[in-house]
Amino acid sequence: MIVHNDKSVFSLKKMTLASMFASITIVMSFISIPLPFSPVPITGQTFALMLSGSLLDPITSLFSMIIYLALGAVGIPVFAGFHGGISILLGPTGGYLFAMPIASFVISLLTRITDTSFFKLILANIIGGILIVYALGVLQLSVVAGLEIKKAVLLGAVPYILGDLIKVLISSYLSLKLRPVLKKYTEFKN
């Protein structure tokens, strides 16, 4: 359903932006570095979800990550390591993937509460892109792999903290610079 009102939940611009950020997430998932001691690889997916949450409105960012998960769920190899299928979502790394729509939505909500500054973007990306993703990811890793929570945190969170903090800084900086550009090109014109 395409609606001509740009403020609509399903406007053509919002659907296009959601699809574009789902595509960015797919490209970033191809950056995947497996670690020998953990079933969780280093990927660019969290960087893409931080950008989505920082640049898009909450509903559009949520849909961008839902599109990404839906493509992977039906078997298209869009997940890390060129994998796809429901088995990935139900496997040890599935919690990180299920967290993505929630994290992106929360980042977007947090960045829209007040005027956005670099510090607020950093905080929102830490809350959504690290804390929410790690919480759900480590929980599913623990359950599926049969690990105690402490062991799951050591395998599925601790090795990634520094890299994810770097992603937070870069995505926050880029978002601050890209917001005015995105706004300029997405404003509705009669």
N-to-C series of helices and strands = HEEHHHHHHH
Tell me the number of strands: 2
Poorly predicted segments: none
The tally of helices reads 8
The helix content is 55-70%
Strand content: 5-15%
Shape: globular
Rg (C-alpha, Å): 16 Å
The residue-averaged pLDDT reads: 91
The major beta sheet can be summarized as: 2 strands, antiparallel
Ends distance: 20 Å
Strand order of the largest sheet: 1-2
Tell me the structural class: mainly alpha
Produce a short descriptive summary.
This protein is mainly alpha-helical. It is 68% helix and 5% strand. It has helices at residues 12-29, 45-55, 58-73, 86-90, 94-111, 118-145, 149-156, 161-186; strands at 32-35, 38-43.
How would you characterize this protein structure?
By secondary structure, this protein is mainly α. Helix content is 68%, strand content 5%. It has helices at 12-29, 45-55, 58-73, 86-90, 94-111, 118-145, 149-156, 161-186, and strands at 32-35, 38-43. It has a two-stranded antiparallel sheet with strand order 1-2. The two termini are 20 Å apart.
Topology record:
Blueprint: H1 12-29, E1 32-35, E2 38-43, H2 45-55, H3 58-73, H4 86-90, H5 94-111, H6 118-145, H7 149-156, H8 161-186
Helix pairs in contact: 1-2, 1-3, 2-3, 2-5, 2-6, 2-8, 3-5, 5-6, 6-7, 6-8
